[in-house]
UniProtKB/TrEMBL annotation:
EC number: 2.7.3.9
The UniProt record lists the keyword Transferase: yes
Similarity annotation: Belongs to the PEP-utilizing enzyme family.
Domain of life, source organism: Bacteria
UniProt keyword annotations, A-Z: Cytoplasm, Kinase, Magnesium, Metal-binding, Phosphotransferase system, Sugar transport, Transferase, Transport
Name the UniProt record assigns to this protein: phosphoenolpyruvate--protein phosphotransferase
Name of one Pfam family that matches: PEP-utilizers
First-level EC class: transferase
Record bears the keyword Glycosyltransferase: no
Obligatory cofactor(s): Mg(2+)
The organism of origin for this protein: Microbulbifer celer
Molecular function terms, GO-annotated: phosphoenolpyruvate-protein phosphotransferase activity
Localization of this protein: Cytoplasm
Catalytic activity: L-histidyl-[protein] + phosphoenolpyruvate = N(pros)-phospho-L-histidyl-[protein] + pyruvate
């Protein structure tokens, strides 16, 4: 049944709206399982009951009329048990409830399985049979598997308006992603889709039918001409079968039936690109479903032809479209090149379906000060072109079709943020010290030259983390030693005489170079960070040499090694650093040996912190990675992001252990990660004794304001209370209460007033 399962899921994913989804499910499941009945019951959030929403086999008049509360009837029992119910004689079960309107008295065998999404039972999928028999294990497993795969699709459809296309409805809906760049954006979605991918063409309507028809005919003509030209140029190099393929393409483009299908959908006010994509994908699925292997193979040809025409449609669309004010870019995987196309004054926010808070685009967004959400995997992004949006870059939340009230609340937040920033400007020239005189260094994390001005304006005293991989990400090859030297020199000069901590190349995990692909089943536990560069000393040596050359006459460089998991890796890297230094001295460079430090990011380094600290000049905790490794949570996976918590007691104990071990060997210890940029987190870190807090420049004034408002002695007592607590939620509540008592709770990321939202 695997092939059938895959086919059903593909059809469902291509459906326009919820009724289409439900119709496909009940028809296809009934046929595949050869049952008399297949029905879907969905949760009505207002009443809390489960309603018959689609059926194949029961009376259609019952759709929308049959309601069951949790625990009521067999369907209600599936809901409360949250597991399948498989009965050979349903009417004999004590929970059986008869609804005359359904006509189900003739059916005996019953199998119902819950449709669960994020621990919530969205509905129940039911099959029924006339004869008395128990559905076998394979049938039950098929239905359970299908329900699990359909849960996300149904959740999307429900959240975005249930019975109508998202582009045409006006219901508020909320989706969760990953907070990548702080701030609030209120604007309209502008979809950026791969130019030749039929499956990612956004659902969009157009009132100008004549213009879309003309666009379609022009694209068809351009594609015909292109195919003829290519075929003519290559005819001497192609065999008979390959030449026939070009003829087949032309023949398909001349097929009037396809054009008629497309034009019919355009007249229904679909855009030409969406109409073409829908028709061609339907033809692809028909070919893929054929039993003859020759015809199945033709599906790829149909898809290729569809992509060719789509490319021409997209080129014409892009040439006619500009970017309005308050544009919120939305795409499956946005790139720096796409961002560069939008005038900065018109770019309000960024949403990427894929990617992480540490992806290249996220780093650029933070440098530009543009709010961003990454990893919004459940957002039906193809269907929201031109839709009103509110983007909350603090919590990674997206609100579609926000009400006037919701917009007002977020506009108030944006204004509060601007006012707070103005009020904190005066802190830039003041030292960061507690009210009773305890001094703390506040440094910044950087990756682009765009970060420099903002960092210095906010009073940064140094750079705790310069991501050297950014210049590597911006190229289609490894940058040369001289190219690196020039880039590093700019950073070192901009911050001189302040210290600049340059982390050696940290790729792997969620940071990939297109020209140096790393394919792994589990990349976060694989070949990344120092492991890569130790295996490629030519890359490591070239980079370290470039750093040291760039520091000539400035002497504000610090070199930091990422992902160190033990003494052996540190010693191997140190030998290479020493070798690079000796080479440069021999070549006549009058440079000082830079301090060498490591990042504490993996649990093994926590437990060897004392041994590691004795061998380095400084240590810096990478709290983001350390938290995810300690909690076994991928922080870039929105499905488990709720488990990732910087205030988890295990994380706090590890942080305390590291700084204690460092100070026992007289080694300075800093931290660079989201926790350091959180005013509440900064209070605990200072109490633990961290010497340096490094953060995004945006958060620096908030942290400084919080620390200048407290006494170190009070923080020590607060830390002792927190270390006795058993849950991150309890700790977070305690910290926010502490800030509130001090009258500085506004420094924490703003919280909009509660409002009723779907999704």
């Amino acid at each position: 049944m695997l092939g059938s399962l895959r086919s059903i899921v593909q059809e469902v994913n291509a459906a326009r709206d919820l009724p289409s989804v439900l119709d496909i499910i009940v028809r296809r499941v009934q046929a595949v399982m050869n049952t008399k009945v297949c029905s879907v019951y969905l949760l009505d959030k207002q009443s809390g009951n489960y309603v018959l929403m689609a059926t194949q086999g029961l009376n259609q008049d019952a759709v929308g009329q049959v309601h069951m509360a949790p625990g009521e009837g067999l369907v209600g029992n599936v809901v409360t048990r949250e597991e399948p119910i498989n009965l050979e004689q349903a009417e004999a079960h004590p929970a059986f409830q008869y609804f005359p309107t359904t006509g189900e008295e003739q059916f005996s065998a019953f199998l119902g399985t819950p449709i669960i999404h994020h621990r919530n039972v969205l509905g129940v999928l039911v099959v029924q049979q006339t004869e008395r028999r128990r559905f076998d294990e394979g049938e039950e497993a098929f239905l359970v598997t299908l329900a699990a795969q359909l849960a996300g699709v149904i959740a999307h459809a429900e959240a975005t308006g249930a019975l109508v296309n998202i582009g045409q409805q006006r219901n508020e809906a909320k989706f969760i992603g990953l907070a990548a760049s702080p701030g609030v954006a209120i604007g309209r979605a502008h979809i950026v889709a791969p130019p030749a991918n039929l499956a990612t063409v956004p659902f969009a309507c157009s009132m100008d039918v004549d213009a879309e028809l003309a666009l379609f005919q022009h694209a068809l003509a351009a594609a015909r001409e292109e195919i003829r030209d290519v075929g003519e140029r290559l005819k001497d190099n192609l065999n008979k079968e390959e030449r026939a393929l070009f003829d087949a393409y032309i023949s398909m483009l001349d097929d009037n039936s396809i054009a008629v299908e497309v034009c019919e959908r355009i007249r229904q006010q679909l855009t030409a690109a969406r109409a073409w994509a829908e028709v061609m994908l339907e033809h692809v699925r028909r070919f893929e479903a054929m039993s003859d292997s020759y015809f199945r193979d033709r599906a790829a040809d149909v898809r290729d032809l569809g992509a060719r025409v789509l490319m021409h449609l997209r080129q014409q669309e892009q040439s006619q479209r500009d970017y309005p004010d308050n544009t919120i870019l939305v795409g499956e995987e946005l790139t720096a090149a796409v961002l560069a196309e939008v005038p900065r004054e018109r770019l309000a926010g960024i949403i990427s379906i894929k990617g992480s808070a540490n992806s290249h685009v996220a780093i650029i967004a933070r440098a530009m000060g543009v709010p961003a959400v990454m990893g919004a995997q459940e957002l039906p992004w193809e269907q929201i072109d031109g839709v009103d949006l509110v983007l909350d870059g603090y919590r990674g939340e997206l609100h579609i079709h926000p009400s006037a009230e919701l917009k007002r609340r977020f506009e108030d937040i944006a204004e509060e943020e601007r006012e707070l920033a103005r009020n904190l400007d005066h802190l830039a020239k003041l030292p960061c010290e507690t009210a009773d005189g305890h001094r703390v260094r506040l440094w910044v994390n950087t990756g682009l030259m765009a970060d420099v001005v903002r960092s210095l304006e906010r009073g940064a005293e140094g750079v705790g983390l310069y991501r050297t991989e950014v210049p590597f990400l911006l190229r289609d090859r490894f940058p040369s030693e001289e190219e690196q030297r020039e880039i590093y020199r700019e950073q070192l000069q901009a911050f001189a005489p302040r210290p600049v901590t340059m982390r050696t190349l940290d790729i792997g995990g969620d940071k990939a170079l297109s020209y140096f692909p790393i394919e792994e089943t589990n990349p976060f536990l694989g070949w990344r960070g120092i492991r890569v560069t130790l295996d490629h000393p030519e890359i490591f040596l070239g980079q370290v040499r470039a750093m040291m050359k760039a520091s000539l006459g400035l002497d504000n460089l610090r070199i930091m090694l990422p992902m160190i998991s033990g003494v052996g890796e540190l010693e191997a890297a140190r030998r290479l650093v020493d070798r690079a230094y000796d080479e440069l001295v021999d070549e006549g460079y009058k440079i000082q040996r830079p301090p060498l430090g490591i990042m504490i990011e993996v649990p093994s380094a926590v437990y060897q912190a004392r041994e590691l600290a004795a061998r380095v000049d400084f240590m810096s905790v990478g709290s983001n990675d350390l938290t995810q490794y300690l909690l076994a949570v991928d922080r870039n996976n929105s499905r488990v992001a709720g488990i990732y918590h910087g205030f988890h007691p295990a994380v706090l104990q590890a942080l305390l252990q590291v700084v204690t071990a460092g100070h026992e060997t007289s080694t300075k210890v800093g931290i660079c990660g989201e926790l350091a940029g959180d005013p509440a987190g900064a209070l605990l870190l200072v109490a633990m004794g961290y010497d340096v807090l490094s953060m995004n420049a945006t958060n620096l004034p908030r942290v400084k304001a919080a620390l200048r408002a407290v006494n170190k002695s009070d923080l020590d007592r607060l830390l002792q209370q927190v270390l006795k607590m058993e849950s991150p939620e309890q700790i977070e509540e305690k910290l926010h209460g502490y800030l509130q008592d001090l009258g500085i709770s506004g420094l924490v990321q703003p919280q909009p007033a509660e409002t009723s939202l779907g999704g």
